[in-house]
Amino acid sequence: METSVETVLSPAASGPLTPSEKREFLTLCSQLESAVRDSIPADEIRRIKTLCRRAMREDVSARNDHGLPKSILAIKTALLFNEAIDPDHNIILAIILHPFLEDGTLDIASLRKEWGEDVASLLVGISAVEKFSNKNNAVNQDNFRGLMLSLADDIRVIIIMIVRCLVLMREINLHPDTDWVRDIAFEANCLYAQLAHRLGLYKLKSELEDLSLKYSNREIYTQIAHKLNETKRSRDAYIKSFIDPVKKKLEDAGLTFSIKGRTKSISSIWGKMKKQKVDVSGIYDLFAIRVIIDTPREKEKSDCWLAYSILTDMYTPNPARMRDWISIPKSNGYESLHATVMGPDNKWVEVQFRTKRMDLVAEKGLAAHWRYKGVKSDSTDQWMNNIRDILESAQAGPMEMMRHLKMDDYEKEIYAFTPKGDLFKLPAGATVLDFAFRIHSNVGCHCIGAVVNGQHRKITHRIQNGDTVEILTSTTQTPKQDWLNIVVSAKARNKIKQTLNEEAQKLADLGKELLERRAKNRKIELDEALMMKLIKKSGYKFANEFFSDMAMEKLDVGKFLQQYQDAVSETSEAEKISAEEFELRTDNQPDGGKSDVLVIGGKSIAGLSYKFAKCCSPIYGDEVFGFISSEGTVKVHKKDCPNAANIRERYPYRVIPVEWSGKTGDMLSANIRIIGNDDLGILANITSIISKELGVNLRNISVDSDNTGMFQGYLTVGVTDNAQLSTLMKKIRTVKGVKEVSRM
């Protein structure tokens, strides 16, 4: 029920309840009593009624800061929760009792004693979330949602806040404090509507978005609503006239299906109007029809395309608006066939064809509906999807099952404010130094401490949820090696390593310059390969470490140059002795060049067409077999190919023996998977090894890294046989930071 202008502006708006409000309150209490009679024991209902009468008589803090009656809002919230979510015993109690806790009429100890630990826990959670709710306009909405989730130990608290927000949105129409209304509308749209969407509370989500548009842009809302209202009867008739002939044609084709017609919500229509830069009449899918076909899995695609062809035979399709997510499903699993056709009276209608299985996936499974709608994904997606499954399928009552479902995922994160109100997300256990790097790398590199909640703290101080942190810096401060033992966030750790490596590189360059200058003075010409060999022999895995020690005078430059000259002399003598023993040898080759590398079916492959399978990329030396494809081409697979078992089971008559002829052939591609520490320079070291390996070519490389400080790389290399590949993989394993090397 919307609050009238007279009620909001009345002199009683800041005082006790008016007579009309008391009558409304009593009516609402009676409605709630009837609604919860089956879920709340009679003795507790009597105690609630006693509290309600007490609230009605209470003259102190009967209203919130904006003149709205707290008790009425609480009862309406309880009623809506009972209707839209679940008639949960403890949640209803917590909603009704919260105004008394907020006013100080009841304390948490007495509430815990009289109503139980679970109710008290819900009340604490609601209060914790409300504590930060006035800061949301200054922060990123995703971070603020995370703060709420981290503070609310129970998912039911978040659902309560969603319902409370919707009740409040219904009550503030025409409220005189327009700035406050605008803030509430922003919070409803950017925070609670998204949470409702992720939880599958779609009706609540749509109403929150519509009311948010109404309060933030009343003119647009009114225009669209007026347009929809004045055309509702004709629109319903139009949808029926569109569906009826389609329904008959589909039935004649023998399909079993259901059809749903709808008009988009006002907020959704406005979003499309802005995106497409058209008015209401120009929205392609203002009319949306969903055809859900009941068919076996093996006939899904054919039946959907049959329905599509029937529709496009009846109405002219718009090819630019055709979407085929059946042949190639979206990456999130979404499957559906979309067509936009020109219906009667030259109106565009969007029709979606999907099966019951596809519809189930799209609504609550792999597709994750919020991703389909384009909402940014984050680490809460999988967790929220599980919650939605509980809401929709729990046998013992969804709220009962969720009572013990804590937010374990969010125990790994904390949220802290800057003095200006900006909010940053950090991993649990984060320190002042982590927070400094989260703000900016330059701030982190010069951090010397912080003022946390008004008190000076060291860089090692651990941040708590809700802390306000002011970072202190100094231009003389630089990252230290022991900082890596202080920070826990990947960003801070990587930046510290990068800075330290940059400093080490400068030192190494200085050491190398020193060595080259001394060598030039002694008229010694340095050979890079021989010098690297001596560096390895000295116990250094990386040349930079050697040059850094030389710059810091941990190594004697003159002594190393003497070792280098001795090595040059030894190499020269060895070359003189072995030069006389060299003998040029050639292998006899048959006319026509090299022989074929394969023997297929015990016969020469002359005249046969063969390919190496991409699924396993066999190379010379691998145990292989052949598979005769439908085109007549022999595809060569490794015997341990992932597809080998399936091929032998389904097509044993098309498997043919294949052997290598005994001579290596052309260079073939092999795929390597590498896992290691995401350290600066590690990829350069790996690619350097490959480039120096005789007869090996690097053809492709792709790398993925994550926040754990690890990377996963995929390399495609050209080699002539598996012995060469094994040697290469063995050398890559010696690179510092590489944890695993395997062939794919």
Describe this structure in words.
The protein is of the alpha+beta class. Strands 1, 2, 3, 4, 5 and 6 form a 6-stranded mixed sheet that branches. A hairpin with a 5-residue loop joins β14 (624-628) and β15. The radius of gyration is 36 Å and the shape is flat. The two termini are 63 Å apart. Residues 1-12, 364-380, 388-398 and 573-595 have low confidence and may be disordered.
Q: What coarse outline follows from CA principal-axis ratios?
A: flat
| Structural class by sheet pairing and helices | alpha+beta
List the total number of helices: 28
Largest sheet: 6 strands, mixed
Question: What proportion of the residues is helical, as a percent range?
Answer: 40-55%
- Chain-averaged pLDDT: 76
Contiguous uncertain segments of 5+ residues: 1-12, 364-380, 388-398, 573-595
N-C termini distance: 63 Å
Calculate Rg over CA atoms.
36 Å
Number of strands: 20
Strand proportion, as a percent range, falls in: 15-25%
Spell out the blueprint of helices and strands.
Blueprint: H1 5-9, H2 19-35, H3 42-57, H4 70-84, H5 89-103, H6 108-115, H7 117-132, H8 141-151, H9 155-171, H10 178-198, H11 202-216, H12 218-230, H13 232-252, E1 257-263, H14 266-276, E2 287-293, H15 300-314, E3 316-317, E4 323-324, E5 337-342, E6 348-355, H16 356-364, H17 369-372, H18 381-393, H19 398-402, E7 413-417, E8 423-427, H20 432-439, H21 441-445, E9 447-452, E10 455-457, E11 469-473, H22 490-521, H23 528-537, H24 543-551, H25 557-579, E12 598-600, E13 610-612, E14 624-628, E15 634-638, H26 644-650, E16 655-660, E17 668-677, H27 682-692, E18 697-705, E19 710-719, H28 722-733, E20 738-743
Parallel strand pairs: 2-6, 13-15
Antiparallel strand pairs: 1-2, 3-5, 4-5, 5-6, 7-8, 9-10, 9-11, 12-16, 14-15, 14-16, 17-19, 17-20, 18-19
Helix pairs in contact: 2-3, 2-4, 3-5, 4-5, 4-9, 5-7, 6-7, 7-8, 7-9, 9-10, 9-11, 10-11, 11-12, 12-14, 22-24
